[in-house]
């Protein structure tokens, strides 16, 4: 069986449980002083890499690398990945206000992959802030690698990977040779809590930094966000005292 | 007979159930049928046997009446009984949908407490919308000598919010307006019936939070919180309501409205009367409005769950937390291994329990501050020290909000898991930290020696948990049923034990019905006498929440 070297993509996003608000300029979601965490699908990706190592054995998984492109605080998310069990982390640092579109992220990942030579790349199917669902697919296109997206089950056998995908019609199982790209879906696994000893160990694991300038990529956005608005608030209902009242209200609203 | 009917009810076909129904109720009630809306009844049918009428309702119907279980309680003959004229008066004050009368099913939820331990026989529930309405109602009740029970979210744990006999329930459910908020000072003024969680959500959008938090926040109301001086999970950080309440609007038993709704942080003018009402459990008046100081919502919060091998190590963790986390420490809770077993059975399924091994004790620590980096640094070195010195065996740190919520759900779910496991004897005691868990161990031994504690025995679990940071132990005994024999085994032994160790028989739950007679274990007779004088002065007819709080 081929020895796996796994690269996992991580993204720093606004925490899933936080109630988001649109900023006053209505150009974006408010991010200042809001809690951020690791994108849930990426968390599932890291956990899947850990699970694969547990199932296949330490000798069959040589290394798990966590990679992120983002501002300096993205380091926290890499520390989470390291505490979960990744061996090494790579941080491509961008300036605080830099937005990276999926194609740019895919190009950066391609550059890192060409340097590191993993044979399995696991990404979250989408990030919960932009919901693009593009990076994994674009990366596969750029590298000319097979892709298995929306994975709900991953199995490795010799040098091929069998992935069960969640698709509109149900489940689809595909097999492909390695190297391959896999993007995770919600039901792939349940990420475990990070324990104290692992958090302590993670502090000593290597974290390499690059900056955006190290890559020859044009990151000017191709899309312009014109406005961001909240969905219209639901109008509150009225209480009625009797069935007759209900009928007359429905009639006047044109529903009866 | 009722039990027979309930057990065999499910076996009967639809038609025979209906027939059985009619035959049981025929002699007692008119106009009965499945789902038929009961018309507004005349007073004569209010004398019907409510037990029969509730047969077809739900599990609540199996709760026995307080008056039948506690035979030492006698209805005060000085109180009048409800008449049709009374109902007519209330109907002139409130619209018909704010009065509940005549329909047993509708009356039931107001008559039974959250613990399903106490059940009253109230025939009338009123739900005023304004302070003025409360004033009119109370004045009338005082003149007529009709006993009343103020009721908020009905989440109290000592039977203080439900009637014993036929007291009228004055529900604050409709008093739910937020009156004003000043973002400069952080003072919030709202009606007494506002639900705690709603207030918290309202404040969250403005960057503030309520200074208290408890498991019942989705149902409990701020007026009730103030009336019981509720403590909760964050007393450690934000102090008690005696400090955070700035002012109150109280309706006195004779209908007078006492308006002290100031938003001043400092006001040393005369006796601080509002302090009397905080913790008075509805015996001195109804809290219609609250003015409260709200702290800033912290920008950075971390939650940690730790496993500890002994109670001594738990105490040591607490000392270190005060030393090293100091101003960012916002909660310090503990629970024992037996609590975990309950939780795993009823709330958080096994696969989700964060820590793998089974420790005898678990600690939840929460830190809140204005700066994440500062939080993380302090927490990180604190945890490292704990590990290196082997004070904790293992622990997990929440990596995002969802994980933090899971950890909190474990702690907050313990009372609910207990309730699901059986009938719960709930004790809430404060005492010096060193002897806290000894009480749990002593009680377990006592019950084991009595042969009632164990598998297939009347008592299946004795758990200890609580706000160890405040010196507050919650001790729950999970039994198959509430029986006088079990009660006699635990009480007053547990209160005597507490008194011997200079503790309080009720740290935060209050006295209510359950502990009124045990007040002497924590307060001297001279203090109790002064309390009685104050009660007599403000409520000479004794109509406010009788049979509770103060011993006879």
Automatic annotation (TrEMBL), chain A:
Q: Which GO terms describe its biological process?
A: amino acid catabolic process; fatty acid beta-oxidation using acyl-CoA dehydrogenase
Report the domain of life of the source organism: Eukaryota
GO annotations of cellular component type: mitochondrial matrix
Q: How is the cofactor bound?
A: Binds 1 AMP per subunit.
Q: Which UniProt keywords apply?
A: Electron transport, Mitochondrion, Transport
Q: What is its main location?
A: mitochondrion
Is Plastid among the key words of this record? no
Report quaternary structure and partners. Answer: Heterodimer of an alpha and a beta subunit.
Q: What family name appears in the similarity comment? A: Belongs to the ETF beta-subunit/FixA family.
- Its job: The electron transfer flavoprotein serves as a specific electron acceptor for several dehydrogenases, including five acyl-CoA dehydrogenases, glutaryl-CoA and sarcosine dehydrogenase. It transfers the electrons to the main mitochondrial respiratory chain via ETF-ubiquinone oxidoreductase (ETF dehydrogenase).
What is this protein's name?
Probable electron transfer flavoprotein subunit beta
Question: Which organism was this protein described from?
Answer: Diversispora epigaea
TrEMBL record, chain B:
User: Boundaries of each FAD-binding PCMH-type domain copy?
Assistant: 118-297
Q: Which domain of life is it from?
A: Eukaryota
> Recorded E.C. number(s)?
1.1.99.39
GO MF, one annotated term: metal ion binding
What span is annotated as the signal peptide, if there is one? Answer: none
Q: What is the role of the protein in this entry? A: Catalyzes the oxidation of D-2-hydroxyglutarate (D-2-HG) to alpha-ketoglutarate. Also catalyzes the oxidation of other D-2-hydroxyacids, such as D-malate (D-MAL) and D-lactate (D-LAC). Exhibits high activities towards D-2-HG and D-MAL but a very weak activity towards D-LAC.
Q: Does the keyword DNA repair apply?
A: no
User: Where does the record place it?
Assistant: Mitochondrion
Q: Name one GO cellular component term.
A: mitochondrion
PANTHER family given in the database record:
D-2-HYDROXYGLUTARATE DEHYDROGENASE, MITOCHONDRIAL (PTHR43716:SF1)
Q: Which InterPro entries match?
A: FAD-bd_oxidored_4_C (IPR004113), FAD-bd_PCMH (IPR016166), FAD-bd_PCMH-like_sf (IPR036318), FAD-bd_PCMH_sub1 (IPR016167), FAD-bd_PCMH_sub2 (IPR016169), FAD-linked_Oxase-like_C (IPR016164), FAD-oxidored/transferase_4 (IPR051264), Oxid_FAD_bind_N (IPR006094)
Q: Name one GO biological process term.
A: malate metabolic process
Write the record's keywords in alphabetical order, separated by commas: FAD, Flavoprotein, Metal-binding, Mitochondrion, Oxidoreductase, Transit peptide, Zinc
Could you read off the lineage of the organism from its UniProt record? Answer: Eukaryota, Fungi, Fungi incertae sedis, Mucoromycota, Glomeromycotina
Catalysed reaction, written as an equation? (R)-malate + A = oxaloacetate + AH2; (R)-lactate + 2 Fe(III)-[cytochrome c] = 2 Fe(II)-[cytochrome c] + pyruvate + 2 H(+)
The record's family statement is: Belongs to the FAD-binding oxidoreductase/transferase type 4 family.
Q: Which cofactor does it need?
A: FAD
| One of the Pfam families matching this protein, by short name | FAD_binding_4
- Protein name, entry field: D-2-hydroxyglutarate dehydrogenase, mitochondrial
Q: What SUPFAM superfamilies does the record point to? A: FAD-binding/transporter-associated domain-like (SSF56176), FAD-linked oxidases, C-terminal domain (SSF55103)
